[in-house]
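Quick one before lunch.
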Amino acid sequence: MSDTKQDQPNDFVQWRHAPASRWIYCPLCREPLSNQTWDGRERRYCAHCGFVYWERALPAVAVLVFEPVRQEILLVTRRYPPFVGGLTFPGGGIELGESVVDAAVREVREETGLLVSLDRQFGTWATPHNDTIITFFRGHPIDGEIAAGSDAEDACFYPWDKAPSLAFSLHNMVLHLFRTEMGMTIPAS
Ligand SMILES: [Zn+2]
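Model of the zinc ion complex:
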C-alpha cells in the first residue's frame, strides 16, 4: 500500500498534523500570521507579538509485541485516517514530558488493553515524508486482557510468520527485520 494517501486532505488529519501554511491567526494574540524567513526557511510569524511557529516532526513510538508461547504478534486495526481499517503495530505520539519508553508502554495499553515489558529497541526511523519520527520497540505481554481501545478499532494476535501486510511501509520494514531475526528467509521483493 502506498504512503501517499497520508497526504490527502482529511478533517481529522488536519488538526492532528496541521501544516504551517494552515495557521491563520496567532495563538497568543489572535492577530493574523504572515510568512517570514527565519534561519533560511519561511515560517508563520506574528508581526504583532513576535510569535514564530517552529514546525517540527512529531516524535512517536510503535511496539512489536511478540507472544513467545503462541508465537504470535499483536496488531491493531486503525480506527482513524489515514488507512482506516489497516493493520499496524500499536503505537502513537509521545506526550510532552513523557519518556519514550513510557509512551510505548502506554500506547500498547491504551490500544490493546495489554501491559507489556519492552525487550529492546529496533531503531528510530522517519516516515516517508519525514513528518513523523518513530522509535520501534520489541516487547512481550506481561499482564492484562486484550481489548481494543483509543485509536484502535480492533486488537488481535497473528502468527508472526503469516501476519498480513501492514498499512505503513515503515511498519512493514520493521516486521521484515523481526522476521529476519527470527530466522525466516524472505525473498527480496
Ligand atoms: Zn501574536
